[in-house]
Design brief:
558 residues; alpha/beta; Nucleotidyltransferase, domain 5; DHBP synthase; 38% helix
């Protein structure tokens, strides 16, 4: 049985295909149309999923959509009515989008895909919860979902067992932790969707001296529920979601690309600490109410790696699973999984252990691209390739690494990555300023051999999807400056030979040469979606300062 899951029309459009409950293929539309966080109907991602499975639309049994659009429309219209006349401009701007796309999902599915059966519409936070529980290794668990907003819900919790998911409680719009984080992100001069990670990194450079101000606008209760003081916000009232009272409390908003100062860093730090406080209270309350040993997390807020690590280390749960594509792209997976397992009774499959669910290119296909571009390359035996690239990394070279199937989700996990020496004192600045063109304070992640991670870091074990941080042990501080943030933490991906193949072998070879059981790993892109094709990888390599490019067993050098 094939079930197709879809998300679109807001951000992170995505298609996911399940066969008998097992993920066959998954990809975001942005990887195909090169529009970061693309909201459009994911027709190219759907076509990829069909090609990967070797099927057509006529083989698809069901199509699941990641939220209930009419319920979301109801909430949106009520919000505009209650805010009239201040919301009129926003109403005029958004209603055409609802009429053109968002309320016409069945029409677009039939028109674009020629699928004529009724669709399944799964509530947004139920899609998030399903995406995490059904991908987890747990037979029974509590779940917690937190994001911007779905239909009405901005957070939810409950219990899942076998093929059933039981929702216990929801927190409704406008009282949203995800929206609060995005509002402050925009206030600090960053773009929503891409800027939240920048704020999280900036937070560790400041002091939480604005906590009192945040407590005036966020009333936090013992169970983690909270309410926003709406006197400080301007929902649906224009381009900005904060108002003059907010700026009177926190100071003037930072303009994009303006210089950062201590006030900005302090506000970012205070926001991060409030976020962590709320999430910890939520998680502890869920444990108290359910008594469950295991916790599943999903929703865009759980891309916050610092908060994730605190939940793992500071709550009573025995283990925590975070869905690797925690945002709305992953909700497409959840909608398909809910329909498959809960509604149709398909038995649960093995847990999700790899995000390598995108397209792959053969050596022959890559050679065609290189020859058409008149690019010189060498074919290298895979064993010799590992040794040669490990030597280059040990010598301080920066390597483009293009192997196997593209990753699903926001993280490059060794298939579409840029790699470098984590112990090099100048590589972070070189990557940020010359290759990635990003803010100099932002840290890079480390891909670490699983058997060595606890020798180097505290507070972390298995982290295959790069969604948690570890604190560098005191005796190791100063040895890996390129992947160490200001607070002596690193974002960690743990590697095993079983799951990571040649990438694990490369890091092991680097370890043998340097004594460091890790490499610096950042996504293979500049200010664009992660590269998907050999042509995109070659273009990014040629326009950047990378020293060499590896695509499968083909080596391109300067």
């Amino acid at each position: 049985m094939y079930v197709l899951g879809l998300s679109c029309y807001y951000h992170d459009s995505c298609a996911v295909l399940l066969k008998d409950g097992v993920v066959v293929a998954a990809a975001q539309e942005e990887r195909f149309n090169r529009d970061k966080y693309s909201p459009v109907f994911p027709i190219q991602a759907v076509n990829y999923c069909f090609q990967e499975a070797g099927i057509t639309i006529y083989d698809v049994d069901e199509v699941a959509f990641y939220e209930k659009m009419f319920l979301k429309f109801e909430r949106s219209m009520l919000s505009h009515i209650l805010g009239y006349p201040f919301t009129l401009r926003n109403f005029i701007d958004t209603v055409p989008l609802w009429l053109k796309d968002r309320l016409a999902v069945p029409y677009y599915v039939e028109e674009e895909l020629r699928f004529k059966k009724p669709l399944w519409f799964v509530k947004h936070h139920l899609s998030h919860a399903s995406s995490s529980f059904f991908a987890s290794p747990f037979p029974r668990a509590a779940f917690l979902t937190v994001d911007g907003v779905g239909e009405y819900a901005c957070a939810s919790w409950g219990v899942a067992e076998g093929s059933s998911i039981t929702l216990r409680k929801e927190l409704h719009y406008p009282h949203s932790l995800g929206l609060l984080y995005s509002i402050v992100t925009a206030y600090l001069g960053y773009r929503v969707f891409s800027g939240e990670g920048k704020v999280m990194a900036l937070a560790e450079l400041g002091e939480p001296t604005y906590l009192d101000q945040f407590r005036r606008i966020v009333d936090i209760r013992d169970d983690g529920s909270f309410s926003l003081n709406l006197d400080y916000f301007a929902f649906n009232r224009g381009d900005k979601m904060h108002n003059r009272r907010f700026e009177a409390l926190f100071g003037p908003a930072r303009q994009e690309n303006a210089e950062l100062d201590d006030r900005h860093r302090a506000i970012a730090c205070s926001l991060q600490r409030i976020t962590e406080e709320i999430l910890l209270k939520m998680a502890r309350h869920v444990h108290k109410q359910t008594g469950e040993e295991y916790l599943c997390l999903a929703g865009g807020v759980f891309l916050n790696v610092t908060a994730n690590s605190r939940i793992r280390n500071e709550t009573p749960f025995r283990d925590v699973f975070i869905q690797p594509s925690a945002g709305d792209a992953g909700a497409a997976l959840g909608a398909a999984a809910y329909v498959s397992h809960t509604m149709l009774g398909v038995p649960r499959a093995a847990p999700l252990r790899s995000c390598a669910l995108g397209g792959q290119y053969t050596t022959r296909q890559i050679e065609v691209v290189l020859r058409n571009k008149r690019t010189k390359y060498r074919t290298v035996d895979p064993a010799a390739l590992v040794d040669e690239i490990a030597d280059r990394l040990a010598a301080g070279k920066v390597v483009g690494w293009f192997q196997g199937r593209m990753e699903f989700g926001p993280r490059a996990l060794g298939n579409r990555s840029i790699l470098a020496h984590p112990g090099s004192p100048d590589v972070k600045e070189r990557l940020n300023l010359v290759i990635k063109h990003r803010e100099p304070y932002r840290p890079f992640a480390a891909s670490v051999l699983r058997e060595h991670v606890e020798d180097w870091f505290e507070g972390i074990g298995d982290s295959p999807f790069m969604l948690e941080v570890g604190r560098l042990r005191v005796d190791k501080q100063g040895r890996i400056p390129a992947v160490t943030h200001a607070n002596q933490t690193s974002r960690i991906q743990t590697l095993t030979r079983e799951e990571n193949g040649i990438y694990y072998d490369l890091v092991a070879a680097f370890h043998a040469r340097t004594g460091l059981p890790m490499v610096l790993n950042t996504s293979f892109n500049e200010d664009e979606p992660i590269v998907r094709t050999p042509a995109e990888a070659l273009r990014c390599y040629e326009e950047s300062g990378m020293d060499c490019l590896v695509m499968e067993n083909l080596l391109i050098e300067r």
